[in-house]
Amino acid sequence: MRIALGVEYDGSAYFGWQRQKEVDSVQAQLEKALSFIANETIELQCAGRTDAGVHGTGQVVHFDTNAERPLKAWSMGVNANLPDNIAVRWAKEVDEDFHARFSATARRYRYIIYNHKLRPGILRHGVSHYHGDIDEKKMHQAAQALLGEQDFTSFRAIQCQSNTPFRNVHHVRVTRQGNYVIVDIAANAFLHHMVRNIVGSLIEIGLGNQPLDWMATLLALKDRNQAAPTAKAGGLYLIDVTYPESIGLPKPTLGPLFLAD
User: Where is the Pseudouridine synthase I TruA alpha/beta domain (predicted)?
Assistant: First the structure.
């Protein structure tokens, strides 16, 4: 039996999604809780491996099990055995050919900036604080140069293991709600640190430190050293993974928090 789960988590306490030796991870905690419910060892496959400190509201995973359990055991039962910063949002039995990573056709992230002269207290782990005056309209305009299938070498981490730097960006939207600037980006897939590297450069444009055409220039240069530093991890959320409609996975609200779909 193959089960798919929708998972959300506060990544601030973890060294990323992926299970690792000697440090805690979201995958390790979720596998531990699932294995307890299944009374057998469970290994997960995920749609996207988020980095240390990065959050998820729309992570999708799957696992195989011989255990016969009602679906609520894989949601409510698992949640009762998870730390309070990880939660299963839904569970669904899927066909054997479903794969959380390889069946996905797109991923979507949101990066939340708290743009205020003073740092936040309550949401300090869920947003990234930038105190300069950010022009989100300039960021949005500049970001449109990223659309389509392009070589994203300038926004690729040195340790990225992908065989190709080409990705197809479906949309990039930069909006503001009060003191919060939201960068919403979707693509067929992302390179290592690609979203945070893009946001880091967009912030430089929003602060007026670089011209509007800088994103296009960086794409053409194909040189990571020419782009801005990587944006902080705390503001980034994996909010959605797209699959063919025929699979019939649930579609909860994207978030985080108050943000509309």
Answer: 8-102, 142-244
Residue 118 belongs to what domain range?
Answer: 106-238
Catalytically annotated residue among 10, 51, 184, 240: 51
Residue 228's CATH number: 3.30.70.660
Which residues face 184 on adjacent strands?
110, 173
Please report whether residue 66 resides in a domain.
yes
> Which pLDDT band holds residue 257 (cuts at 50, 70, 90)?
confident
Q: Which of 74, 103, 132 lies at the terminal end of a domain, its last residue?
A: 103
C-alpha 206/C-alpha 138 separation (Å) is 6
Secondary-structure breakdown of the chain: helix, strand, coil percentages, each rounded to the nearest 5:
25, 30, 45
Secondary structure E strands in the chain: 2-9, 45-46, 55-64, 86-94, 106-115, 128-130, 148-151, 166-177, 180-187, 236-242
Q: Is 24 a catalytic residue?
A: no
- pTM for this prediction: 0.95
The verdict on 90 and 110 lying in the same domain is no
Same domain, 90 and 136: no
Please write the tens of the pLDDT for every residue from 50-78: 999 999 999 999 999 999 999 999 999 99
Which one-letter amino acid corresponds to residue 180? Y
Nearest partner of 104 among 28, 170, 172, judged by Cα: 170
Residue 109 annotated as binding? yes
24 exposed, middle or buried (CB, 10 Å; 0-12, 13-18, 19+)? middle
- In the chain, the number of structural domains is 2
Report whether 242 contacts 84 (CB < 8 A).
Answer: no
